[in-house]
Amino acid sequence: MDAMMESDRVRDIERIAEREKLRKLQQRQGAEVIRTQINERAEARLLDQEKKDQETKLILKQIHDMAEQDRSAKQKKILKQKQLMDQVGLDCCCRCS
Fold it and tell me: What's the pTM value of the predicted model, to 2 decimals?
């Protein structure tokens, strides 16, 4: 009888140990999943930030290019106005003579 009780007790201890071993394994696996998710999200945030930075650079370049085009167009307009004024001035002088 004592041998049977001892055998049952040993089996119970082994089952408890096996459950504890399984619980720890599942806990480690769960922790690994969480670490993987954290790393994936960090990488996604980094890629997203890089994309936003590139978009910002592109927008700033477009703004700079547009400003440069505006300056160039303004200079051309001023030059054309000056040429027209010079022509008008010459025509006026020619008529006056």
Answer: 0.57
